[in-house]
């Protein structure tokens, strides 16, 4: 029964991972056979300013985008968990951005971000004069200013939180109704109920989702940066680890060096998985009511 | 109960309360008064509307008609938190992430009682129910009986006007249920609080209650002391529901003809009811019957009989003198031990 899964796991995950591990210590351009390079790739990574920028970008992206995504998903889940008028279409709407194919999603945002006729900036200019916003400031230069471009990628990623939303929706709906009735009988305010009941009861799920999203953020920053900002604007404002690896491997044909960078990414993932595992163990007692 | 008995100044008054659940009316024009300091048990089968009644009092379900009065206040339009009631849920509804102490003081903390005072009152409440040694634990580390105590402590820490208890003992094993039943009664006597206790367990109702309200299909069938409910059931339903095995009910015209002087009002279509312990086996001019099976419960035995006419009858006999399966017996009963009901309405005929 497990055989197909095992074949897939070995052929598509473990074998490539092992090859990557090996290639990380070689010089390989996809044409000539790989030659042993020892720790040269690793020591080059340490001093490579572009790699350092990419690593920083990835970490900053994760630290900003992940909390925003989880907060949005939590807010929507708490708003929409009840059956009320309009909650069904709203749930579907929350799912849709994730269902759009990634490249199409990127192209759509390319239009949304357009500084002249893009709807976002048109909206921001409402009430302002001479192409400025109502507050008299220049609207964000989404595709040309380094900071604004980073914000653009984060903005794009915030709306594709459907999986987190669905899990939180299910988690909220699985919470017992009676504890909320106790809270109602004690006249707890909405804020007290959220702070003292909902949030602690959902904390285990939230913690696991945050870690999961941190891992995923290493990957889902790739397509927006590739399609919308092309890793720029200079200096490498939206070049994330995944894009750095892609460029190094497939454009500059430095496969061994890309493999070494991939190892760093895997290392980050492993750290996150360990954290997740520990959280899971800690909360297992919590779930066993 | 007549409307004349209804006072809004009681511990709890339901005045013409109807309630619906998913479009189906589950409480119909209910009139019920619980005196201050009284423990009233609402008894009824599943689906009679017992839990809905409790939730209407708590404000967790809206009324469709009528008013709810608590300690002289009309709370019909008030939200649950403004009614000053505490509820013990069948599931206990403890917060799994809070310690026992935090669970008990929850209602005080969200009402901005200072932390130290809340902790002190929580400890006192826990002592009342014998849960003081559990304060530092979490619900997941407690047994069913301990959770029960914590839920009780949480209910009484705020000193509410009315306690609502929704089948609080039904999740406990029998021995613990009997023990907690006694403790609950003692707690009530100590606190002197108004309590509304819902159960489907007739023994619990009989043992615990000052008065019992028997609920059937959203209507109050009878309100009375346990003695009244047992000795003068107001209807065939009450008679059949209270008592185990249930009361025997046969047509008034036979096949059993009770001995002694019949009560007045036996004219018309009547049914007679008598409890298993009233049945006399071996009555020479009794009705003929055969024994289907015999259940022995300690010193007593219950003989399940079928009369020749086909009606089933249960008799309680001393275990030492029980008949055997298949025996032919003669069954009699005295008029003094029977209840007479109108066959059409099922209501008790005055005797």
Structural features, described:
The complex is a heterodimer of chains A (289) and B (351). The model of chain A has no long low-confidence stretch (mean pLDDT 89). Chain A has 13 helices and two strands; from the N terminus they run H-E-E-H-H-H-H-H-H-H-H-H-H-H-H. Chain A is mostly helical and 289 residues long. Chain A has a two-stranded antiparallel sheet. With 351 residues, chain B is an alpha+beta fold. In chain B, helix 3 crosses helix 4.
Summarize it.
The complex is a heterodimer of chains A (289) and B (351). With 289 residues, chain A is mainly alpha-helical.
Strand content of chain A: under 5%
What is the string of helix and strand elements of chain A?
HEEHHHHHHHHHHHH
Give the averaged pLDDT of chain A, no decimals: 89
The CATH superfamily name of the largest domain in chain B is: P-loop containing nucleotide triphosphate hydrolases
Q: How many strands in all of chain B? A: 18
Order of helices and strands of chain B: EEEHEEEHHHEHEHEEHHEEEEEEEE
Architecture of chain A, according to CATH?
Orthogonal Bundle
What quaternary form is this?
heterodimer
Number of strands of chain A: 2
Q: What's the helix count of chain B? A: 8
- How much is the average pLDDT of chain B? 89
CATH topology annotation of the largest domain in chain B: Rossmann fold
The CATH homologous superfamily of chain A is termed MetI-like
Helix content of chain B: 10-25%
Q: Structural class given helices, strands, pairing of chain A?
A: mainly alpha
CATH topology of chain A: MetI-like fold
What is the domain total for the residues of chain B? 2
Strand content of chain B: 25-35%
Task: Give me the Rg of chain B, rounded.
Answer: 24 Å
Question: Low-confidence runs of chain B (pLDDT<50, min 5 residues)?
Answer: none
């Amino acid at each position: 029964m497990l055989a197909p899964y095992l074949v897939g796991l070995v052929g598509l995950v473990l074998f490539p991972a092992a090859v990557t591990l090996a290639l990380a210590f070689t010089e390989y351009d996809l044409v000539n056979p790989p030659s042993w390079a020892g720790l040269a790739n690793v020591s080059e990574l340490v001093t490579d300013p572009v790699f350092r920028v990419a690593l920083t970008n990835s970490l900053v992206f994760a630290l900003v985008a992940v909390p925003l995504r989880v907060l949005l998903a939590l807010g929507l889940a708490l708003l929409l968990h009840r059956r009320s008028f309009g909650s069904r279409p709203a749930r579907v709407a929350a799912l849709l951005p994730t269902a759009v194919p990634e490249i199409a999603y990127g192209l759509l945002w390319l239009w949304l971000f357009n500084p002249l006729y893009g709807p976002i900036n048109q909206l921001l200019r409402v009430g302002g004069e001479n192409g400025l916003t109502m507050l008299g400031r220049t609207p964000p230069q989404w595709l040309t200013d380094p900071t604004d471009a980073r914000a653009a990628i984060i903005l794009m990623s915030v709306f594709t939180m459907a999986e987190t939303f669905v899990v939180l929706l299910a988690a909220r709906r699985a919470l017992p109704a009676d504890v909320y009735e106790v809270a109602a009988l004690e006249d707890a305010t909405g804020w007290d109920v959220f702070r003292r009941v909902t949030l602690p009861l959902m904390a285990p799920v939230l913690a696991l989702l945050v870690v999961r999203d941190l891992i995923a953020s290493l990957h889902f920053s790739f397509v927006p940066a590739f399609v919308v900002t092309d890793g720029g604007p200079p200096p490498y404002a939206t070049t994330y680890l995944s894009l750095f690896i892609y460029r190094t491997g497939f454009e500059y044909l430095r496969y061994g060096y890309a493999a070494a960078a991939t190892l760093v990414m895997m290392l980050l993932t492993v750290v996150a998985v360990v954290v997740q595992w520990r959280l899971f163990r800690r909360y297992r007692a919590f779930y066993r009511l | 109960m007549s409307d004349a008995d209804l006072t809004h100044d009681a511990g709890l008054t339901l005045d013409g309360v109807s309630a619906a659940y998913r479009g189906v009316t589950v409480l119909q024009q209910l009139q019920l008064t619980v005196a201050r300091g009284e423990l009233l048990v609402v008894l009824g089968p599943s689906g009679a509307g017992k839990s809905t009644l409790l939730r209407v009092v708590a404000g967790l379900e809206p009324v469709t008609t009528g008013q709810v009065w608590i300690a002289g206040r009309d709370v019909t339009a008030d939200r649950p938190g403004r009614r000053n009631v505490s509820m013990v849920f069948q599931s206990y509804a403890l917060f799994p992430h809070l310690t026992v102490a935090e669970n008990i003081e929850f209602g005080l903390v969200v009402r901005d009682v200072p932390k130290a005072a809340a902790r002190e009152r929580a400890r006192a409440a826990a002592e009342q129910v014998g849960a003081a040694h559990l304060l530092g634990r979490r619900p997941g580390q407690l047994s069913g009986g301990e959770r029960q105590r914590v839920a009780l402590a949480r209910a009484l820490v705020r000193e509410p006007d009315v306690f609502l208890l929704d089948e609080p003992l039904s999740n406990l094993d029998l021995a613990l249920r009997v023990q907690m039943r006694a403790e609950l009664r003692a707690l009530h006597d100590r606190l002197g609080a108004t309590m509304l206790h819902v159960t489907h367990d007739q023994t619990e109702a009989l043992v615990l209650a000052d008065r019992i309200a028997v609920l059937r299909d959203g209507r109050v069938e009878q309100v009375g002391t346990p003695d009244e409910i047992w000795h003068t059931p107001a209807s065939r339903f009450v008679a059949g529901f209270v008592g185990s095995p249930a009361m025997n009910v046969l047509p008034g015209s036979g096949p059993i003809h009770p001995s002694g002087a019949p009560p007045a009002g036996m004219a018309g279509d009547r049914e007679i009811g008598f409890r298993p312990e009233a049945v006399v086996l071996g009555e020479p001019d009794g009705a003929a019957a055969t024994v289907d099976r015999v259940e022995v419960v300690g010193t007593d035995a219950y003989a399940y009989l079928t009369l020749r006419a086909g009606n089933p009858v249960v008799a309680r006999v001393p275990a030492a003198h029980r008949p055997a399966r298949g025996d032919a017996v003669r069954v009699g009963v005295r008029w003094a031990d029977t209840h007479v009901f109108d066959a059409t309405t099922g209501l008790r005929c005055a005797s």
